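WARN retry 2 of 3 for item q-0093 after timeout on previous attempt; input resubmitted unchanged.
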Amino acid sequence: MSAASSGSESSSEFEHIYNSPQSASWSTDGIESLGSTEQAQILSIIDGIRDSNVSKEIDFPRLVVCGDQSSGKSSVLQAIAGIPFPHSSDQCTRFATEVILKRSSFVGVTVSIKSYNTKETTVFKTKRDLTSVDDLSEVIRKAGDKMERTGAFSKDILQIEISDPTKKPLILVDLPGLIHNGPDEAVVVGMVEDYMKNTRTVILAVVTAGGDPDPQAVLKLAKIHDPEGRRTFGIITKPDKSDGNTNLQRRLIGMAKNLDKNFKFDLGWHVLMNGAANDGEQQLDLEKRAKEEKRFFEAGPWSGVPKGNCCIGPLRQRLSTMLLDHVKQELKGIKGDISAAIARCQKERADMGELHQDLPSKRNFLVETGKKYHKICNQAITGLYTTSRFFGTGFSSNPEDDALYLRGRIKNLNVAFAYTFWKYGHHKEIEDCSLIPQGLIDTDESTDHFDDCRVEPDEITRKYAVVDWVKPVAKKSRGVEIVDGRNPTLVKFLFCEQSQKWETLAYRHLDECSAACRKFLRLVLEAVVPEAREEIRDSLHDWIDRKLERRVADAKREMASIIADCRDCFPIVNNYQYYDEVGIARVKRAGNGSARQTITSLRHTLGSVVGLPTQAELVSGLTEVIGSLDGDAEEVHEDPEDQRCEASLDEMLAYYKTASRRFVDDVVVQVIERKLVAELDETFSAYEAAVMTDEEVANIVQESPYKQQKINELNVRLKSLERAADACRRYSRWYVHPNLGIV
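OK item q-0093 returned
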């Protein structure tokens, strides 16, 4: 059945529960022989762990039967377990089958399907007595129809759980047969490897005697996942198929004696007749099988195999000892897994916190959360990062951790803003009056958020600035001033044009700082409110975000006032640096103008005299002197209006230098620091929680029914794990492993 068709059946997992009386016509005596008293005591620990419903976290030791297709795997499983399977149908080999034997207060068989994707168990209760092979075969067929398929195979797992007060715990797994060069080869190999690579799996590698063992895929995979052969046990089936091939038979017998150098396993080999019932036969006669096996191995070439390495009876005894030793070796690791699972469960339970049903409890929770929140925020604002559990040590290579160090982040953003402002903030760069500070050096701080603002200023000559930039505006903006007077609005117009990028740069900086604060506060909230309290965290996030938005709005209003003071008002300055700049410009302009006039007149006079031998050299030298003076080497401005424009230009440039220094400091101090960052720790605190209204407290701390259910589940799971841990400790007190010591 396809995944689509099975969806309506809740195909993730379903379960049929069958109550079978002890007088059933089939039994599990085969499995009973797999358990000694000591083994039962050890495996009962595993059974208890499995009952704790933590199979997703803990891998259990298991015997896994695997081999190539038609190698006789299912027959081996039947012989070991004494449980009948539908031998004539290949349905059972299309998916993994787990036989789980467990102790229980009732007698019954549970057949279930465990989803490969969800790993969840849902119960589909359909009860009836299971008293014959036909009953079990029919159940398995119906279970197979419910599975989601990948091609002809399914990754879902068929589980047959046998419950009985007298049963000894055990897990046996039958896997689909490995196929060669088929469309589903990769699917089957993946399923088999999932089990083989688990170090708690004992690999029962089934090899048919009907062919050369070298190309059989099961041995190749066993070599990959158990290269030293410590947990692989080889089983040779159908030994009668080797009759007529002396070389093959001789090699297989050597393998059965564990003498083959290519496939020598610590656990050894075993030979087993395929004594499963013929097609159509209703039940498995274990006694008949044992007699047939005995006759086969008492005569012929296979009689040379040691008696302990052939027949089903000795196989069960070997598996019993093998499983016991394997469980002993893995028990220490299982105990470690249990301890880790307990730690995870305790942390998850601690993260859930206590249920807050009444108003005082809810308010107290917010007060305690506010204390933690305020402490971390205050440390970040002052740059004293003492809470190492939150800030770490500063050596993290994760760039996301930079957001934790808020003070450092804001200072770095201020550096990036100032650098971008000084280098790209002015509209015109005049050749003899650069507005880029001489000491400005490149910064390694990111300025990516200013990408569209990083446009180089227009570079112009002073003559162009006076004649083509300032003069047209001066003419256009003439007022009631006398003919030779200067219009005071001209400096304002020039300054506004020169500072047109300031507003964009400033707001871009504010947005970046706001984002840094928002990200930081989110990280703080995640640290002080556990993930399990997601509803409360989200509610607090909304509360804090509203507080932050109000601070951002205040910062924007302050920014608007600062920008308005610069651009909307007439230039007002009482800064001595401004007067120094203007005075220097006037002296330079007056001195250069006087020198130009004198030298220019002399050049013109000499240039009109003909016949002097040094005339050309003198004219050239005077021209060079003029060119060495500051400014353009052309004629000095004789037009009074040009002179007034040049004076206005000098005043604007001097004012720009003064105002730009003030603007950068105002943005950093008044906007970013005072309105945004300062008192950011007051966005939430113990005081805030204490003065909240009852309605606000109730809206923030809302306990969901899911949380109550989750806490109950964690409590049950924790108790089960602790019981399993107690069982391991009890075992440790009386069992000492010869190699591992007390486990």
